[in-house]
Amino acid sequence: MSGKKKHVLVDSKEHTNPGKVATFLRELADRVEGGEVVLRQGQDEVTARLPDQLILEVSLDEKQKGAKGIKKSLEVEVEWYEGEGTRGPVSLG
């Protein structure tokens, strides 16, 4: 890919409760720490192998949404550049 073109690999939004969100985040944290995250959506599966160095971005914001009131958003974003500081091949020790 060239330029600033964005290609969305997985996109999900669901209404759920705090307990399910917390469980998902704990499982995600374990996989991030392990260096690989596999996301499944229906029959599709995407694997992200994470390098040793990541960029962590956290934001909390709010927007007025007309008659619905104020919408708040807590976003946790993990970023990295492909090929930068990769962990290398897996081997048996």
The oligomeric state is single chain
The rounded Rg comes to: 17 Å
Low-confidence stretches: none
Major sheet size, sense and barrel closure: 2 strands, antiparallel
Terminus-to-terminus distance: 36 Å
Look at the structure and give the mean pLDDT. Answer: 89
Q: What percent of residues are in strands?
A: 25-35%
Structural class: alpha+beta
Secondary-structure element string:
HEEEE
Please estimate the helix content. Answer: 10-25%
Shape: globular
Helix tally equals: 1
Tally of DSSP β-strands? 4
Strand order of the largest sheet: 1-2
Structural write-up:
It is globular and about 55 Å long. It is of the alpha+beta class. The protein has a domain at 18-79. It has one helix and four strands.
